[in-house]
Design a protein that fits this description.
single chain; alpha+beta; 8-stranded mixed beta sheet; globular
């Protein structure tokens, strides 16, 4: 029996060895094939917008290669807790019509306890030094909030919201005149038609429109705009404010969307439609071979991938050096929009009993209106849903806190200093917090912030821009495209979806 057992064991080990060898050999063979093949399209980065373009092109039978950073992780788990960093609150609450454009007939909501009631359709909560406002989608409930918190300037505020409502109706008319299939609010018409047209939308930004309001109310509007997207500014175009704040309150919304699950599902469908995925450490250099082919050399690897069209799906700050002296077009756009702050995530496991009554699952909080945003003065917080044991153990909650740090300098040393400011702010929001903390973890930030896939930034634009045209165009030059948060940084997930759809359409037309 011992001999037979040994023989069976050896047989199983041998079978496992040969099976593993075959898989490794097959992967190596596929990788070699990829190196010698010239793809129609190569996409650098596995972000949402690039995946949208990739999936469309693969469905149209174009050969598409997705280069994915093997070291980047979009979530973190520990001791029964699951944390997912985010760039803006729109990543957690998406209009159903937008979600269906990229991933129809799929449930993308985070798992929740049966019978768990929705949060009365609150987008998120804004906490100011002297005010706490729930952003209800129902206008009458929102009106109740600003009447309670800003009674001394009630007439001004009601007139301001009435003007936003008027602008919303103008935008509806503009949308109704758009051609079928157009990506509203993006304006695809020629420069001449734009210049000659008059759409009735007012000019000017929030700096002029809100000049007579209190500092608290002005900051209230500014924080809403920043929280919807990824643009830092002290002045936003008024039509953009109307589009984001009054964004079709009657539409259906997907609450608590798991965007990581959406992205993974898209990668699986991309592969099923014939797309190829390669995990890489990074790209060392990109060369243009004549006018018909890109050559991508990898970091720490002798592999070279070639494609006729290249889509860059990573923050511009990580791409400017790839092309050497020929990267002038990218450098030009990189000077127009730049990351002002990096959003640093801290993960806390906390007990349910410490959460104040009335606190929402998503909130933005500022301690001092007069101080800069960094140093823990401004926080974006996301609590896991109550009772959801897929996100945290029973009677506990996963708290993801995003704080801002100025870009540049030694990041990892600064993270340690930032944590003190973050904890002081959190203790202001959660009385007796120190008695109910399971752990504080910044390991994910230490490991992931240096990755070229890291997407969590607040950008600033150094010159005026037309919000319906975007900042960075999807087409940079002949056969070179760019998709991501910097195309439409103020639109959040809506902007990423639109940039992916726009790039996919433009590349498809190019091949056609």
């Amino acid at each position: 029996m011992k001999s037979n057992g040994s023989t069976n064991l050896l047989y199983r080990v041998s079978s496992y060895y040969h099976a593993t060898k075959e898989i490794v050999s097959e992967n190596q063979t596929n990788s070699m094939k990829h190196q010698h093949k010239v793809f129609d399209v190569a996409i650098l980065g596995a972000g949402l917008s690039g995946l949208i373009a990739a999936t469309r092109l693969a469905k149209e039978n174009h050969s598409v290669l997705l280069l994915k950073e093997e070291g980047y992780r979009s979530s973190y788990t520990r001791d029964g807790y699951r944390f997912v960093p985010y760039s803006n609150f729109s990543e957690k609450q998406i209009q159903t019509r937008l979600l269906k454009k990229i991933s129809p007939q799929t449930d993308h909501r985070e798992n929740q306890k049966k019978g768990d009631k929705p949060e009365q359709k609150v987008s998120f909560q804004v906490i100011l030094p002297e005010a706490r406002i729930d952003l209800y989608r129902k206008r009458s409930l929102l009106q109740r909030e600003w009447r309670r918190e800003f009674p001394e300037e009630l007439n001004q505020i009601e007139n301001f919201y009435a003007e936003l409502e008027r602008i919303k109706q103008v935008l509806k008319k503009v949308k109704s005149k758009a051609p079928p299939g157009s990506n509203f609010p993006i304006w695809n018409r020629s420069f001449l038609k734009r210049w000659l047209s008059f759409d009735g939308l007012p000019k000017g930004g929030t700096d002029k429109w809100l000049s007579s309001f209190s500092p608290e109310f002005k900051k209230f509007i500014e924080l809403q705009m920043i929280s919807h997207g990824n643009l830092y500014s002290d002045s936003f175009p008024i039509p953009l404010v109307s589009h984001l704040i009054f964004n079709d309150e009657g539409d259906e919304w997907e609450e608590s969307v798991d965007l990581e699950k959406v992205t993974q599902g898209m990668i699986e469908r991309f592969i099923q439609t014939g797309g190829s995925v390669e995990d890489i450490e990074g790209v060392e250099k990109v060369q243009m071979k004549g006018r018909r082919e890109f050559s991508l050399s990898l970091k720490g690897d002798e592999k070279i991938f070639r494609s006729r069209t290249l889509v860059l799906n990573s923050p511009l700050r990580c791409l400017s050096n790839l092309f050497g002296k020929k990267g002038k077009a990218l450098s030009r756009w990189g000077k127009k929009i730049r990351p002002r702050y990096v959003m640093v995530p801290f993960f806390l496991g906390i007990r349910e009993r410490v959460i104040p009554v009335g606190m929402r699952n998503s909130l933005v909080s500022i301690l001092n209106l007069q101080k800069p945003y960094e140093g823990g003065n401004l926080l974006f917080l996301r609590l896991s849903r109550k009772g959801d044991e897929n996100q945290a153990p029973e009677e506990k909650r996963a708290l993801t806190v995003q704080s801002l740090m100025s870009c540049g300098g030694s990041q990892k040393d600064s993270i340690s200093d930032l944590q003190d400011g973050v904890m002081n702010h959190l203790k202001h929001l959660f009385p007796f917090l120190e008695n109910h903390i399971e752990f504080i973890d910044r390991k994910w930030a230490d490991d992931q912030m240096d990755c070229w896939s890291y997407p969590h930034f607040l950008y600033e634009v150094v010159s005026d821009f037309q919000w319906r045209r975007g900042v960075v165009p999807t087409r940079i030059s002949n056969r070179l495209y760019f998709t991501g948060k910097e195309n439409f940084p103020y639109l959040g997930v809506e902007g990423e979806i639109l940039s992916g759809l726009k790039a996919g359409e433009e590349i498809s037309n190019k091949f056609g």
